[in-house]
Amino acid sequence: PGRWALPGKTALVTGGTRGIGRAVVEELAALGAVVHTCSRKAEELGERIKEWEARGFRVTGSVCDLSARDQRERLLREVADRFGGKLDILVNNVGTNIRKPTVEFSAEDYSFLMATNLESAYHLCQIAHPLLKSSGSGSIIFISSVAGVVGIFSGTIYAMTKGAINQLTKNLACEWAKDNIRANSVAPWYITTSLTEKLLENKGFEEQVVSRTPLGRVGEPGEISSLVAFLCMPGSTYITGQTISVDGGMTVNGLY
Ligand code: NDP
Fold this sequence. Notes:
Helix content is 43%, strand content 15%. It is an alpha/beta fold and 256 residues long. The protein has a seven-stranded parallel beta sheet with strand order 3-2-1-4-5-6-7, with helices on both faces. Residues 15-21, 38-41, 44, 64-67, 93-96, 116, 143, 145, 188, 190-191, 193-196 line the site of NADPH dihydro-nicotinamide-adenine-dinucleotide phosphate (NDP). NADPH dihydro-nicotinamide-adenine-dinucleotide phosphate binds at residues 15-21, 38-41, 44, 64-67, 93-96, 116, 143, 145, 188, 190-191, 193-196.
């Protein structure tokens, strides 16, 4: 049973109040992990934590905006305090998107997406490194996107941040293997969350997405969190540096 559980493992999951992050918090906590999460909205975070307590999950949270460097540093100090200077699992989930044709992006759009999607994950890895190393066996998981694997109409800046995350995964896997820290990236295609609900309400758009997807549907957050959990478990200790697409077959669909 130890191979398929996370008893007492400590985890930081960024952006855990909604969507994929929420599913990851719940999946890890249900497997026995002790989880810390964060989001920008105090009220929603408080509500989630109450729900999780009622379900017997051990989850705490901090209100912070991860696009700000000093707030990332404060978050990691809180995590170090809570978990006694050790961290087994870091899930870099926070990310967002602005969809525009390339020529319409402003300098502010660029800085905002780079800070939120890429710099935040990169810097959290840097400052979490001592804690992950102290755990004796650390696992970093990035929530990337198939937009960083193939070219899709999601906006170029978003795609660039996700492509960079997939490369960061490879470099950290090599550089930090000596510290027994693994790094892997999970790349979803369309998943029903607050980020995509408006888009998918447009049935023409959803049809276009589904028509490219061999399994013929979009995905659910629980279909991402299951892989994230596996990548933290003793059963995956030889997997590192990989970007795994969870996409209903979209990225292997040439023309079928
Ligand atoms: P949601 O927008 O539904 O949820 C995002 C979560 O992150 C919320 O809890 C949000 O809370 C939090 N968050 C957002 N920005 C910040 C910030 N600056 N600081 C702290 N917390 C923040 O997104 P999804 O669950 O859909 O996406 C999660 C990840 O999955 C992203 O990296 C996304 O790119 C990726 N992904 C999603 C896909 C999809 O189809 N849904 C497909 C491919 C990849 P709050 O707003 O209160 O801060």
